[in-house]
Design a protein that fits this description.
The chain contains 11 helices and 13 strands. The chain has about 325 residues and is an alpha/beta fold. It folds into 2 domains: about 100 residues, no CATH class; about 180 residues, Vaccinia Virus protein VP39 (Rossmann fold, 3-Layer(aba) Sandwich), CATH 3.40.50. The strands form 3 sheets. Strands 1, 2, 3, 4, 5, 6, 12 and 13 form an 8-stranded mixed sheet that branches. A 3-stranded antiparallel sheet has the order 7-8-11. Helix 2 runs antiparallel to helix 10, helix 3 runs parallel beside helix 5 and helix 4 packs across helix 5. About 40% of the residues are buried. Bound molecules: N,N-dimethyl-L-histidine. N,N-dimethyl-L-histidine binds next to helix 10 and strand 11. This is L-histidine N(Alpha)-methyltransferase. It comes from Psychrosphaera algicola.
Length: about 325
């Protein structure tokens, strides 16, 4: 794990335009900061998707086309704290569907918390947590031959480039069977005055989340980043529809990383690109799906039309 982390960091910081992979945001501190982000007034994504899950629960369940007499697996990729899903789990359980809930997450910490909270709130739901990177978990999905409904919520897909998203969905489809479903949560394209504050909140929580990556490299890779000398700098342009987070070097500086055995040099104002958060519309999603086995069968939106959960069927 550490070797992989060091390797990715070295590759990213050796590029002419420096990058760091956003998946490393999520250590214990990063998980807690992300929970704070989801509760921020500016971060509309979670509230909008929660609205869809609370007000359209029956329609969502109907879209799964599950048979009450046939067992199925409800797999959630990147489950996080599972708040939205618990609405669905409660309704599925009350209505007598036969299923296991398999949350997959890279954060062991989040999975443990999720399991404990579901054991208390929904003791009748069988929870089988899977710890790991969801790219790596794809292969194990086809080990069972039961019908499957996969949840990939929260616009987590937006943290992938379109090419990576397309490849990921292709591989997911290849590991599913005809008729299986994917419920895909996507943040929709909208103006900068709504999107940008979600990545640049007044209290500076997103800034802390971004800068936490520097603390993590210091703690785990023996890096010498001075977190006070980097500034959180997000950007968003509606034409492109992608929010981008950067860490901007406040001055000319050099940073040593023990785990890579190298020193990296930063000019004043030089940016490290740490994350993309893609926003979608039907056309963009259709292009991403073009080479996959999925087709869009339904779309659920919140009342502001800020967010959409697309129901995709595996052909
Ligand atoms: C997890 N992911 C969908 C979040 C997003 O909106 O891209 C991560 C995040 N980064 C900054 N704020 C939230």
């Amino acid at each position: 794990m550490i070797e992989q982390f060091a390797k990715s960091v070295d590759i990213g910081l050796s590029k002419p335009e420096k990058t760091l992979p956003s998946k490393y945001f999520y250590d214990k501190n990063g998980d807690a900061l992300f929970v704070e982000i989801m509760n921020m007034p500016e971060y509309y994504l979670t509230r909008c998707e929660m609205e869809i899950f609370s007000t359209q629960t029956a329609a969502l369940i109907e879209s799964f086309q599950a048979d009450k007499n046939t067992y199925f697996e409800l797999i959630e990729l990147g489950a996080g704290d599972g708040t939205k899903t618990s609405k669905l789990l409660e309704a599925l359980s009350t209505e007598g569907y036969q299923f296991d809930y398999l949350p997959v997450d890279i954060s062991k910490n989040s999975l443990d918390q999720l399991q404990t909270s579901l054991e208390q709130s929904l003791p009748d739901v069988s929870v089988i947590p899977k710890h790991g990177d969801y790219f790596e978990m794809l292969g194990s999905i086809k080990d069972s031959h039961h019908p499957k409904v996969v949840l990939f919520l929260g616009s987590n897909i937006g943290n992938m480039t379109d090419a990576v998203a397309s490849d990921f969905l292709y591989q997911l489809g290849a590991n599913l069977s005809k008729g299986d479903k994917l419920l895909l949560g996507t943040d929709l394209i909208k103006s900068a005055d709504i999107v940008l504050p979600a990545y640049n909140d007044k209290k500076g929580i997103t800034s802390e989340f971004n800068i936490n990556l520097l603390h993590r490299m210091n703690a785990e890779l023996g890096a010498s980043f001075d977190p006070d000398e980097f500034v959180h700098a997000p950007e968003y342009c509606i034409d492109e529809g992608i929010a981008k987070s950067y860490l901007l070097s406040a001055r000319k500086q050099s940073v040593e990383i023990e785990a890579t055995g190298k020193t990296y040099h930063f000019k004043e104002g030089e940016k490290i690109h740490t994350e993309i958060s893609r926003k979608y519309n039907d056309d963009i999603l259709s292009k991403i799906l073009a080479k996959t086995d999925f087709e869009i069968t339904q779309k659920f939106t919140d009342q502001n039309n800020y967010f959409a959960d697309y129901l995709l069927s595996r052909n």
